[in-house]
Design a protein that fits this description.
- The chain has 183 residues and is mainly beta.
- It has a single domain, classed as Lipocalin (Beta Barrel).
- It has helices at 2-23, 40-43, and strands at residues 46-56, 61-74, 77-86, 91-100, 105-109, 113-122, 125-136, 139-151, 156-165, 168-179.
- The chain has a ten-stranded antiparallel beta barrel with strand order 1-2-3-4-5-6-7-8-9-10.
- The longest helix is centred in the first third of the chain and has 22 residues, at 2-23.
Length: 183
């Protein structure tokens, strides 16, 4: 009887933890009154330096990188050019085309993005969802990105992206960005 109770308690605890992890959610409404406020056009104009890590589903760091970005905007359409230098020696380049579609919404496209990225921002937070062709070794995986960014003081932006396959988080990305003053 004691064994049955203990095993039932373990199964219930694991099930609850799994459900909590799968159904956790974040909403832009939580950040509506937070500052400093973010605007995609304002922040992604000019040069930006970035540093980041990729972690696997166990939390192990699988990649580290430095990145340089430059954004330009004209008539509500922006180009964000990103160059990633991985500590492994690999390089990656991505060019985003961003289009503002409203006061706090935008769409994004890039050559390795499947379809269109949908972005929104409110208060200090920005959220973008998209599907990305992600090269890993000799393979390419299509992963769903749930990309969250929070503007901090002094031109700093913190980015957390959750990479999912079949609704399960398989990796996470953490990036710290800093606007470079134009001289």
């Amino acid at each position: 009887m004691r064994w049955f109770f203990l095993s039932s308690l373990i199964v219930f605890s694991l099930g609850f933890a799994l459900m909590f992890g799968l159904f956790r959610s974040n909403s832009l409404d939580l950040y509506q009154s937070t500052g400093p406020g973010i605007d995609v056009e304002e922040y992604f104009t000019g040069p930006i330096q970035a540093w980041g890590i990729v972690q696997d589903w166990r939390g192990r760091v699988t990649a580290r990188f430095d990145a340089d970005m430059v954004g330009t905007w004209e008539d509500g359409v922006g180009t964000l050019d990103e160059v990633f230098d991985f500590y492994s020696g690999d390089k990656q380049h991505r060019t985003w085309t961003l289009r503002k579609t409203g006061e706090a919404t935008f769409l994004g496209e890039a050559s390795d993005v499947i379809g269109t990225a949908n972005g929104k921002f409110s208060g200090s937070a920005l959220n973008m969802k998209y599907v990305l062709d992600l090269p890993v070794g000799d393979s390419v995986y299509q992963l769903n990105f749930d990309d969250w960014m929070w503007k901090m003081n002094d031109g700093v932006l913190i980015n957390r992206a959750y990479m999912k396959k079949f609704g399960i988080t398989v990796a996470e990305l953490t990036v710290f960005m800093k606007k470079v003053p134009i001289q």
